[in-house]
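Quick log. Single chain, no ligands specified.
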Amino acid sequence: MVSTTPATRAPAAADPGPLRPPWSARALIAAGLLVAAVAVTWLTFWWIGLSPASLAAGLDDTARLLRRMWPPDLPGVGDVASMIAETLLIAVAGTGLAALASVPLAFVAARTHNGPRWLRPPARVVIVLTRAVPTLAFAILFVRIFGLGPPAGALAVAVHSVGMIAKLLTDAVEEADPAPAEAVRACGAGEAQVAVSTVLPRVFPALTGIVLYRLDINIRASAVLGVVGAGGIGVALQTALGSLNYHRAAGIICVIVVLVLLLELLSVVVRRTVLRPTARRRTAALPAGRARHDVGWDRGRVLRVTGAVAAGGVFLVSLWSLDLDPGRLAGAWPNLRAVLSGMWPPAFSGKLLMAVLESLLMALGAAAAGAACGLLLALLTAVNTTPWRPLSAVVRVLLVVVRGVPDLVYALLFVAALGLGPYAGFLALWISSTALAAKFFADSLEQLDPLPHEALTSVGARRWQAFAAGIWPQFVPSFTGNGLFVADLALRESVVLGIAGAGGVGYLMQESIATLRYDTTAAIVIAIAVVVYAIETLARIARRHLL
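-> predicted structure:
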């Protein structure tokens, strides 16, 4: 027998100490979120009167409407080209204006920028407010100020885009290497010179990616801005639905879906081309005898400069197409003064609070139900969990098509089939949340470490056992984080759907502007911003503790 000497004993520092409690803080947060999701879903079902019988009846009414829409009546080629061109120009003009406004706003809001500190809080308030209020809500206001047409749509796209572009660019500015900026400051340069000469070139690739991603989002939004008279192909859709011409409405919806899918594919190709690392190509392109730091006009630089010039030209054309003549702008000032003067003091009421509560329940309930359905679809889609590869391809294509239809189009269809109210809005959000959650969950599942699952499978574990022990524990943080992000997006979209009559605070907002009750409009905007920012903050805190 080998005796145990002090030299062979484990050191005292290796003592594991007391066992951890069975419920850690992360487990409590996850369990609390699950209980909250179940409770909110049940409350939403009760609020809108959703039951298996009512759901079956609603789907039957929707199926009858879809049969009435078949076959689609496609507009003429000239009409389609004109509507698509107007939609694209609205998105390009709005995104370009937002990018120009976001650069100085982001530098002012950044903590690493040594400009006037008293400007930082107002800049951050502007970023939060513009990000919280949806594009369609801004479109209603600008239609009242500037009148019907593309200018109102482009300005709505621009104002809402400032929130996202400036927020992400502010993060990039704060994360940039401070050494070059400090060196330039030591030479006596001002803050504007520091920003332009050192910080902006370093964050320009990030700005390019943000603007391209935002342009993709804005093209989708511009496709439905015409519902409130802000130009684009949505005007034709609203006209067709208003005149009960369902065949023509189906044709326009098909055009919107194809447009969105093609542009999504194009945006992916452009982002990969523009943002692809060029260091390898640049090194290979150096002529013999040239210093490494002197890159010259290689193929990559020519393409980037050509792309920048082309983008600037398209932006100028889009601004020219808005027809912003001085007479129209001068006529908008009285409307703007009337809107701003009528917004103070904001008129909060019990009706407003109930409408906000309805939007909140509708969005969170649809997001919870969509996350549950999206998880099932993601398990069929992800390559490491699908039981049959051909089934994965079919489900993936179906999800792409479902995501290609804007939420407002679903809401318009359900309102036409089921009538006004939160029932139609809930179904629209449920469908869009399911497709979006399935996309996020499938991507997360495919990025997990495959070793635990393969190890369990190699020792004879069944498929469900390998999933429960090897995949699910890794997937829980991503499932929670992505689910919270879907809920955040659903809350913003619930306001948009209400404008189409699908329940919530959006309908009340459109009504207040139509009746010139701008004090109610101001209260609605404030309520939307507060609720969206609160949910966004809670989601960020939960993700930080869980991920």
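The radius of gyration is 27 Å.
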